[in-house]
Amino acid sequence: AQSVTQLGSHVSVSEGALVLLRCNYSSSVPPYLFWYVQYPNQGLQLLLKYTTGATLVKGINGFEAEFKKSETSFHLTKPSAHMSDAAEYFCAVIKDTGRRALTFGSGTRLQVQP
Amino acid sequence: DAGVIQSPRHEVTEMGQEVTLRCKPISGHNSLFWYRQTMMRGLELLIYFNNNVPIDDSGMPEDRFSAKMPNASFSTLKIQPSEPRDSAVYFCASSPRDIYQETQYFGPGTRLLVL
């Protein structure tokens, strides 16, 4: 089973609409979860992460994600999309705390329509 | 802070040639990572260093790939000989501490095309 699965390779929303990007992780991995964003021709930038503590995590640019153990999910949301949010978003996990490697999902490209 | 610096940003080479990618991590960071991004395989870790020592190179595809970190401020990823299937974007990332919770800061990447 994949360690992390992102549902929907492309998501399109209207400016001002709710953004919901889905991420499910395998229950066999420790719940250390990250969302990164990649703008065109740029490197990845951390949006937010969950490692311990409060299950609702707030990140940069108005994004937040909720860790739901019962659903093995870590969906990314933003109440109101902005044109500048158009980018590719990656959910990532630490598969093994003995290794530092991030295992990334396949990515979701967010398009924001005016 | 200048962030993670990678050079070159773009590289076009012919099959069989040697390619060297360079990375300067953020000052004070003691962990450095090399990732590769392709359409087919997505983002995958190639190797990571802690305090200049390679810790995990299980992602290095084959002997054609080698990575070094001679000091805390510089790392190279070398491909010799290069092949068309090596075409990808190669990212370098660094993090302040060698713990799994720590954020990794990515460079802008090197886009490699092997003809």
Plain-language structure description:
- The complex is a heterodimer of chains A (114) and B (115).
- Chain A is an all-beta fold and 114 residues long.
- Chain A has strands spanning 4-7, 10-14, 19-25, 33-38, 44-50, 56-58, 64-68, 73-78, 87-94, 102-104, 108-113.
- In chain A, the strands form two sheets. In chain A, strands 2, 4, 5, 9, 10 and 11 form a six-stranded mixed β-sheet that branches.
- The model of chain A has no long low-confidence stretch (mean pLDDT 90).
- The radius of gyration of chain B is 13 Å and the shape is globular.
- In chain B, the strands form two sheets. In chain B, strands 2, 4, 5, 6, 9, 10 and 11 form a seven-stranded mixed β-sheet that branches. Chain B has a four-stranded antiparallel β-sheet with strand order 1-3-8-7, with no helix packed on it.
- Chain B has strands spanning 5-7, 10-13, 19-24, 31-38, 42-50, 53-56, 65-71, 74-79, 88-95, 105-106, 110-114.
- In chain B, a hairpin with a 2-residue loop joins strand 7 and strand 8.
Quick summary:
The complex is a heterodimer of chains A (114) and B (115). Chain A is an all-beta fold.
